[in-house]
Amino acid sequence: MRTTLLKVFFLSIAIFGFAAVFAVKAQNITTKPVWRAHWIESNFEEDKTVRPAQYFRKVFTNKRKIKAAIAYITAHGMYEAQLNGKRVGDAYLTPGWTSYKKRLQYQAYDVTPLVIKGENSIGVTVGNGWYRGAIGWGDNTNRWGTKSGLLFQMEITFSDGTKATIGSDGTWKSGLGNIQYNEIYHGETIDHRLAKKDWALPGYDDSAWSAVKVASYDNSNLVPTINEPVKKHETFKPVKIFTTPKGEKLIDFGQNMVGWVIVKAKGAAGDHISIQHAEVLDKEGNFYTTNLRSAKATANYILSGDGEEVFEPHFTFYGFRYIKVEGYPGELLPENFTAVTLYSDMAPAGTLSCSNPLLNQLQHNIAWGQRGNFLDVPTDCPQRDERLGWTGDAQAFFRTATFNFNVKNFFTKWLKDVAADQRADGAIPHVIPDVLNSDGGATGWADVSTIIPWQMYEVYGDKQVLIDQYASMKAWVGYMENHTNVNGLFAYGDHFGDWLSFKPGNDAGSDAITDKYEIAQCFFAHSTQLLINTAKVLNKPDDVTKYESLLKRIKDAYNKEYVTGSGRLMSNTQTAYVLALQFDMLPDGEARIKAAQYLAGNIGKYNNHLTTGFLGTPYLCHVLSRFGYNDLAYTLLLQDTFPSWLYPVKMGATTIWERWDGIKPDGSFQNPEMNSFNHYAYGAIGDWMYQNIAGIQAAEPGYKKIVIKPIIGGKLTWAEGTYDCPFGKISSKWKITGNKLTMDVTIPQNTTADIYVPDAAGKNYKMYTVKGGTYQYSR
Ligand code: BGC
């Protein structure tokens, strides 16, 4: 009854004179709106392939003085809004990507300065986005709906305190414009001949535009935005403009990145510029896009012929370093091409550098892998027809990610989708948002549900994430428990295993060397341990008891099944030992010491090369350090022949590759079916680098207590790291001159630290316990 009345009231007052019933604290953008606006959609007939952007428009008159105006906007698709021709906000690809049916974000904008006295106009463009554009595989359009649509509500507070609301409704108009085609994977087509000049300004004649359709959706899925939106960041100018052996005209921007290129051109009406994007050149130096699979990643720009024209896409993004330009009127000049990056606007958190330039390039590549793939959700890769929130990749990289940027809000938001898409039986789908409709439950992938919340608590010291995710964590452990066999083993279901581990002759790594169920038992234990830790923090003693007894059974079963009498593991692989040691699967003492020896021996057998995949790699050097093999950890880190972290660096990589050998020593490529050059998972070594080269470690959740303990090795003569923890900036710097070591350390106020200062040989640490302040040591 109340709702109906409100609706009638809202419609009948049209847009003005709304009294103070729905109070909005105008300056507080976190205020949740009461939705009185209606979803609107265009009336156009559309098919699945040609779906131009929709343009929505509304004119209103404002006669009064305004104190504040807040616009709440969301869309089925992606939107860009203007008020009186000015862009609303500086966020891109909004409303971002979530499990739309359950959680659709709206954004709130303070538009006070944009509303004027007299005629005003709202103009919103809506593209297909993740909502109904192609995403995932197979029949991949319309994942969440067939129609794009807009929900817009602006709440105005006048200077006398009265309020009004302007919302999308049947009085709005819709039309088409210059964005003729827009797809995340395939790119955007903009035809300036079809531009409706000044369409977002009040005076525009929209008599030829159609009435909109008012649609009704249950708005219970609407949620405020809690993470930083995608914004523009760095820009790049061409470092080289050249012609390939095949005669293609290319521009090299010098960095593999994610975003798009802003193009200026002057030509005749109908001139058609096509811009394709690629990450690498082939062996012969030609443009290479086979690894993008079906993604066309092409911008098509058609000129109106009206002087200098500027083109820039709206509803797509590309992963690229090179562009191939066709049809450009005139010579390719650097001033007409600017690449701009787009990624979630996370605050930078850390820096790391040292005396070895190859390691500095590796750190650069890790951070750029993060920039390119933290685009509202943590994606596996940003360029091919995939770009999905693969859970395994995200958990593998999480700890490293925290060092480079503040990812608290980014992951708080994504974890909500993890929980939202979790199956009723507790399984976590392989990708979040779940567009693959997989059964989920893959070891090391589904464990994202326990690993990230716990690590987030360790890094940011905020229990809220544990409170919010506890049910989800428990449900995933419950799933594994429900699928244990009579021997207490979680030996059930399909798994990716130690994905893309080194195995000569094994192409996709789908049959990783380490037994998948052996891995599964380790992650079962790990997730259970993290649940116990969480139950302790949240003070749930019954759960602690329950899961401690489960953990014992898991480990007993593991030791019975996978450990030989002499202490070797059934899979005699690096990853098997790494996981067993990292997750404390073996009894304390001799068994662990021996396992670490087997691990070191195995590395030696491969001539000091790692052979680990997505699951073993993040922990490899940590385990070596923990068991006294720091030198070996450095040897692996500095190894520069395949497989190793520095091999791609030596091959000229500017981001982390999906595979250890994406480009082989002879310049040929790995299987193009899966060969991304911007895939952050192996960048997980960054965590070890920050914690050991710079020596910055959290000894208590949120860095309330800090340990500074650099490991001197790898012939490094100096290193420097900084990290913005919740209490402020930590910095740690060391330098060796002759046989003297100096250390400069800054610890934030309200924290304490144990600072370990080695001698110039990296031995005989002396420990100092200090409070916030700046310290210098020399030995
Ligand atoms: C993705 C991965 C992902 C994997 C799972 C790939 O297609 O790119 O990074 O984790 O599939 O097997």
Describe the structure.
This protein is α+β, with helices and mostly antiparallel strands and 779 residues long. The protein is 25% helix and 28% strand. It contains 15 helices and 34 strands. Strands 11, 12, 16, 17, 18, 19, 22, 23, 24 and 25 form a 10-stranded mixed β-sheet that branches. A hairpin with a 6-residue loop joins strand 29 and strand 30. Helix 10 packs across helix 12. The longest helix is centred in the last third of the chain and has 22 residues, at 516-537. The chain is globular, with a radius of gyration of 28 Å. The model is unreliable at 1-28 and 506-512 (pLDDT under 50). The chain binds beta-D-glucopyranose.
List the helices and strands and how they pair.
Layout: H1 2-12, E1 39-41, E2 54-62, E3 66-76, E4 78-83, E5 86-87, E6 104-110, E7 118-127, H2 129-132, E8 149-158, E9 163-167, E10 173-175, E11 179-183, E12 187-191, E13 210-211, E14 213-215, E15 222-224, E16 230-236, E17 240-243, E18 249-266, E19 272-278, E20 280-281, E21 287-288, E22 298-302, E23 308-311, E24 318-326, E25 337-344, E26 350-354, H3 357-373, E27 374-375, E28 377-378, H4 391-404, H5 408-421, H6 448-460, H7 464-482, H8 516-537, H9 541-562, H10 574-582, H11 590-605, H12 617-626, H13 630-638, H14 646-650, H15 685-694, E29 696-698, E30 705-708, E31 718-725, E32 728-737, E33 740-757, E34 766-778
Parallel strand pairs: 6-15, 12-22, 30-33
Antiparallel strand pairs: 1-14, 2-7, 2-10, 3-6, 3-8, 4-5, 4-7, 8-9, 10-13, 11-12, 16-25, 17-18, 18-23, 18-24, 18-25, 19-22, 19-24, 20-21, 26-31, 27-28, 29-30, 31-32, 32-33, 33-34
Helix pairs in contact: 4-6, 4-15, 5-6, 5-7, 6-7, 6-8, 7-8, 8-9, 8-10, 10-11, 10-12, 12-13
The structure holds beta-D-glucopyranose.
